[in-house]
Insertion element protein
Amino acid sequence: MTCYQEISGPACGSNLIMKSGRSAAGTQRYRCHNPECKTKTFYRYKACEPGIREQVVDMSINGSGIRDTARVLKINKNTVISTLKKSRAALSR
Ligand SMILES: [Zn+2]
């Protein structure tokens, strides 16, 4: 799954971000190269992980609202909305 979300440091908002290996669970890890930054490594925003999109779609099919979906998956409400929009566009093709 490709992630189109712009990666920036969660602590400083810097875009001096380099990939830095993966966690044991396979989550992409990033390193912030801003010298002022206190958060040197962080993980990619959860919505970008493979499987989240499928879970968002599954929950919507099962009748979950956008708020519920966002809360259960611990992602942003706007991410749920854009994920559903993209999925519907793909389905109606
Ligand atoms: Zn940073």
Summary: The domain at 48-88 is CATH 1.10.10 (Arc Repressor Mutant, subunit A).
